[in-house]
Amino acid sequence: MEEYQLPEILRTPLEELCLQIKLLKLGAILPFVEKAMSSPSLRAVQLAITNLKDLNALDRQENLTPLGYHLARLPVEPHIGKMILFGAIFSCLDPVLTVAASLGFKDPFVIPLGKEEEADRRRREFAAGSKSDHLMLINAFKSWERAKSQGRESERRFCWDNFLSANTLKMLSNMKLQFAELLQDIGFVQARNPSNPQCNKNSGNIRLVKAVICAGLYPNVAKVRGPKQHFRKRPPKLVTKNEKVQLHPKSVNADEKYFEDGWLIYHMKMKTTQVFLYDCTMISPYPLLFFGGDITIQKDGNQETVAVDNWIVFRAATRTAKLVKGLRHELDTVLQQKITRPGAINWDERSKEGQLMRGIIQLITTEDSSQDYEDDYDSDD
């Protein structure tokens, strides 16, 4: 046991540390960190800076963007903070706050020794075929709220039957309230209640909720490798931008043999015996195109392709590719305006803002990736 506690600069998550350095106007990040008596790894700090640039929290000169300014004021890691802000902007606040609270604290499931298979089965039931650990959390939390409304005994029985911790669920509920209060304080919502109808016009739109989760967790993306087949004998291979990965056994997707959309978005990646993704959500092309990194239109022979950050590639018709790039530019402009001057979206169909947001949501909601886009699948090795 160490005699003294580690210095705070070594205990603070690096991305949050970088944002605080910029918020307090302490100069360039690396030179400031180097001056510390006990400094973190400079390579790790540089990686954190790169991640913040990918998140659009820092510009190329390492200045705080309007988004970075808000993220620095939220008491969560930047990816989760961005998810929270986008949940408010797209009016699907309550389910997004459930995911944010769980990822920021811990998931509410407990796994008693000897009952691992039964606990995994309950998690898959909550996932309800969504191929998403994050939607599984939303469904579990909603079910707990319904049981809780019927009395203490109903809540106790529900938690016992479904391997859930009532104390953790109550903590998540309190965190959601705190997040909503913070959002109201900085002007993104008008109510302190996360379930207020004005903050949840689109909360029933599951595809949109997944897209907002994608907006927060990007660039944590894994590609499903192999041909699209319904009847595979083994789970498909997965690869991130830099390495091969596998799904952790606790993920509801661990035994899935087929993903109709060829991409997964994830929060936690950890190396033990192998590199595992501990949680993930299957995601379709449009959320990656609208909420991912820079998009470019390229030629692959006679075929147009749309690339996100030069590695997430979709084959598309020329007209569709140009339409998406134009819409992405319009969306970025609206989001930048809302981040700079917080306020509710004008959802009126007669307003330009309302028309754009409704149009993008309709594209995300009605998307059939087999129609307009074809994922650039690799063959099995």
Key phrases:
11 strands, four-stranded antiparallel β-sheet, alpha+beta, seven-stranded mixed β-sheet, 16 helices, 381 residues
Concise account of the structure shown:
By secondary structure, the protein is of the alpha+beta class. The chain has helices spanning 8-11, 14-23, 29-34, 42-54, 66-73, 78-89, 93-104, 116-127, 133-149, 152-161, 166-185, 206-217, 285-291, 318-340, 352-366, 369-372; strands at residues 221-225, 237-239, 244-247, 263-266, 269-271, 275-277, 280-283, 295-300, 303-308, 312-316, 373-375. A seven-stranded mixed beta sheet has the order 5-6-3-2-1-4-7. Strands 8-9-10-11 form a four-stranded antiparallel beta sheet.
The side-by-side strand order for the widest beta sheet comes to 5-6-3-2-1-4-7
**Strands, total number:** 11
Q: Estimate what percentage of residues fall within beta strands.
A: 5-15%
* Annotation field: number of helices: 16
Please give the share of residues in helix.
Answer: 40-55%
Written as H for each helix and E for each strand, in order along the chain, the element string is HHHHHHHHHHHHEEEEEEEHEEEHHHE
Unreliable parts:
369-373
Separation of the first and last Cα atoms: 47 Å
Please describe the biggest sheet, giving its number of strands, its sense, and whether it closes into a barrel: 7 strands, mixed
Mean pLDDT: 88
* Rg estimate, integer Å: 21 Å
Q: Which structural class is indicated by helix and strand composition? A: alpha+beta
Shape: globular
